[in-house]
């Protein structure tokens, strides 16, 4: 009996120690698990739009690489594309090839650590990068009310942060999440995510501070960010708000006629 009790005690102790080791690993390496700047699903898409390669100075001393497609900065709205996690600027070419057909300018800039930029991504760092991008655009004489913010996946958290208490022309959220804590709980229900997570991207809590028209797009078959998160973001957003929730799209939404139509209708409304 004593031997059996000893074995049970040893087993329980081992399980607890293993669990604690997992927690320690996750806490110290969580940003390596969260951000994937070197993952690349680039499919050799050819650029079909004119652009100027720009390098935006930042407060941390490193420049951020970007592409600036300009039609008319004085008379047309300018869309800033805050990209999602994984990959680099080239991974968005297929979207930009179609966005260029709208009567707007657009600017896409890679965050620190992405597309060869120096630095390592963090929540605070990405917010800082986004504000530096907006400040740079202001120096190009682009007014706040002529800017459309476009956030893709991780970029939706960045977009909502910098859009608080601003009067942008509009905000587009593609595959948004309610918070990184909620996303972490979805993937790791056995971990105390709310205690461990450093980078939280609390989109849902910030929606009350958004005063711009908003379009939420989310595929119902999203296998990375659950569709219910996008739906909840839409439900909690202020009016005027618009939605595009296709039944068969996953996380990488299909840039088809329906989606482009949703974008076009939104652009016309603002």
Summarize the structure.
This protein is an alpha/beta fold.
Please characterize this protein's 3D structure.
- This protein has an 8-stranded mixed sheet, with helices on both faces.
- It is globular.
- The N and C termini lie far apart (76 Å).
- The protein is α/β, with parallel strands linked by helices and 270 residues long.
- It has one domain (35-269): Alpha/Beta hydrolase fold, catalytic domain (Rossmann fold, 3-Layer(aba) Sandwich).
- It contains 9 helices and 8 strands.
- 37% of the residues are buried.
- Helix 3 crosses helix 4.
Give me the CATH superfamily. Answer: Alpha/Beta hydrolase fold, catalytic domain
Shape by Cα distribution: globular
* Stretches with pLDDT under 50, minimum 5 residues: none
Question: Helical segment tally?
Answer: 9
CATH topology assignment: Rossmann fold
Number of strands: 8
| Radius of gyration, in angstroms, nearest whole number | 21 Å
Beta-strand residue percentage: 5-15%
Our measurement of the CA-to-CA distance between the termini, rounded to an integer number of angstroms, reads 76 Å
The largest beta-sheet arranges its strands as 1-2-4-3-5-6-7-8
């Amino acid at each position: 009996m004593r031997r059996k009790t000893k074995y049970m005690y040893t087993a329980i102790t081992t399980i607890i120690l293993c669990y604690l080791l997992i927690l320690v690993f996750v806490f110290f390496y969580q940003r390596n698990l969260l951000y994937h700047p070197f993952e690349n699903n680039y499919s050799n898409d050819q650029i079909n739009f004119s652009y100027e390669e720009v390098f935006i100075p930042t407060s941390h001393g490193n420049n951020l690489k970007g592409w600036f497609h300009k039609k008319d900065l004085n008379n047309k709205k300018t869309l800033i594309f805050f990209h999602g996690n994984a990959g680099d600027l080239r991974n968005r070419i297929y979207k930009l090839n179609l966005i260029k057909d709208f009567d707007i300018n657009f600017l896409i800039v890679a965050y620190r650590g992405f597309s060869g930029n120096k630095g390592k991504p963090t929540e605070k760092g990405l917010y800082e990068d986004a504000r530096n991008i907006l400040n740079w655009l202001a120096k190009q004489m682009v007014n706040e009310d002529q800017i459309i913010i476009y956030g893709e996946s991780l970029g939706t958290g960045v977009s909502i942060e910098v859009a608080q208490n601003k009067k942008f022309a509009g905000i587009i959220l593609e595959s948004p999440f309610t918070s990184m804590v909620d996303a972490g709980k979805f993937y790791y229900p056995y971990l105390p995510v709310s205690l461990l997570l450093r980078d939280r991207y609390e989109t849902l809590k910030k929606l009350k501070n958004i005063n711009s028209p908003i379009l939420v797009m989310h595929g119902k078959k999203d296998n990375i960010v659950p569709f219910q998160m996008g739906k909840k973001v839409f439900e909690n957003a202020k009016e005027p708000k618009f939605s595009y929730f296709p039944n068969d799209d996953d996380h990488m939404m299909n840039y088809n006629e329906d989606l482009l139509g949703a974008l076009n209708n939104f652009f016309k409304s603002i």
